[in-house]
Write a structure and sequence with these properties.
By secondary structure, the chain is mainly alpha-helical. The chain has helices spanning 3-20, 22-33, 42-52, 61-73, 75-84, 86-108, 112-141, 161-188, 192-223, 225-234, 236-255, 261-280, 291-294, 298-327; strands spanning 283-285, 289-290. It has a single domain (3-301), classed as Formate dehydrogenase/DMSO reductase fold (Up-down Bundle). Strands 1-2 form a two-stranded antiparallel ribbon.
Length: 352
């Protein structure tokens, strides 16, 4: 395997990790938006805030890593994607700003009305970003992003059935992952009412995701038959793994089980991401630019691989420690808050 292929594999790995972490954060915003009025949505929003606060910024490190690696290692592809898909990527960036700013504001604003408005903007941003990132991926997947500066159509490249269905699939998968993770959080904190609340939503979002996945495949078959044939021909085993993992997550959620359910859900989403990666190889931009043709200098590729190892050794343990401390209940804004039935607190795990 060449250094360029190694860097491309790292990019797919970064997309996978971001899908299993950052996408779930956006899903939490979707459930915050759909929780209802102030009183009706108070308990689920409180759990979302408590679960999300310690880790939400760390989860999005992978998006920055992905962008930096792409523009450094494959500048031609980066330029083509950013110029042709400027509109959806700009709207995704707007969603990131709305989400980040208003997640902080809706907890700390002095006025209740301001907090409520900030909560709405947080939820809207959490829908915008995964949808438009998914639409951009759909544009690449369907071969609508040729190499060159703004060489593809700036509107029809992403506003088509394939891209829209992939965008909606990204929103549904984020909502699914988030609901699964929140089921486990509610169980860990001893909140049976909220566990059932998010369990129902996990099943609903998972079913929506399976339906949207089928729609996306059907749209791709009509749109770009070569890529469709690659997915069903090369990646059929990964598709089966993904579907089986998602069905297993449904079964665990319906039974009320929480042990291992987050891992199973993440495996399902990861398998779907690698379905795309395996099908698209060796192209950066199907079917116009290969990894070899679009790669930067060989020395640049080798340095990227070296710094990936350094980053893995330095940042990896810190992220693991963050997640371990979070799951032990040792992180939180107010650890002295007492718990009541269905009122989440940052207390440690509750076992039963």
């Amino acid at each position: 395997m060449t250094a360029a292929n190694g860097v491309a594999a790292i990019i797919v790995l970064a997309v996978t990790v971001y899908a299993c972490t950052g996408l779930a954060d956006y899903g939490a915003g979707v459930w915050d938006l759909a929780a209802g009025g102030r009183e009706r949505g108070r308990r689920p929003r409180a759990l979302i805030d408590t679960a999300l606060t310690p880790i939400w910024e760390a989860n999005h490190v992978w998006l920055i890593f992905l962008l930096v690696t792409l523009w450094t290692g494959f500048g031609i592809a980066f330029g083509a994607i950013m110029s042709t898909l400027f509109i959806p990527l700009a709207l995704a960036a707007l969603g990131i700003v709305l989400r980040g700013a208003n997640f902080a504001l809706h907890k700390d604003a002095a006025r209740r009305g301001t907090r409520h408005l900030a909560g709405w903007l947080f939820g809207i941003g959490s829908v915008l970003t995964p949808f438009f990132l998914g639409a951009a991926l759909g544009a690449v997947l369907s071969g609508r992003v040729p190499a060159g500066n703004a060489a593809g159509d700036e509107l029809t490249s992403w506003w088509n059935l394939t891209s829209v269905s992939v965008g909606l699939l990204a929103v549904a998968m984020g909502a699914f992952l988030s609901a699964v993770y929140l089921v486990v959080e509610a169980r860990r904190r001893g909140l049976p009412g909220l566990r059932n609340y998010f369990r129902i939503r996990a099943v609903g979002a998972g079913v929506a995701g399976l339906v949207l996945g089928a729609v996306a495949l059907a749209a791709l078959r009509a749109d770009e038959r070569q890529m469709f044939d690659r997915i069903v021909g090369r990646s059929w085993a990964l598709i089966i793994i993904g579907v089986v993992a998602l069905v297993a997550t449904f079964a665990l959620a319906v039974r009320g089980a929480t042990r291992g359910v987050r891992v199973v859900a993440a495996v399902g989403v990861a398998a779907l991401v690698w379905t795309w990666g395996v099908a698209q190889y060796p192209y950066l931009l199907p079917f116009d630019l290969t990894i070899t043709a679009g790669a930067g200098a060989a020395v640049t590729q080798r340095w990227l691989l070296a710094w990936f190892v350094v980053a893995l050794l330095v940042i990896g343990p810190a992220l693991v420690l963050l997640y371990v401390l979070d799951q032990r209940g040792e992180l939180g804004e107010d650890p002295t808050t007492s718990s009541t039935e269905d009122t989440p607190t940052p207390a440690g795990p509750v076992r039963s």
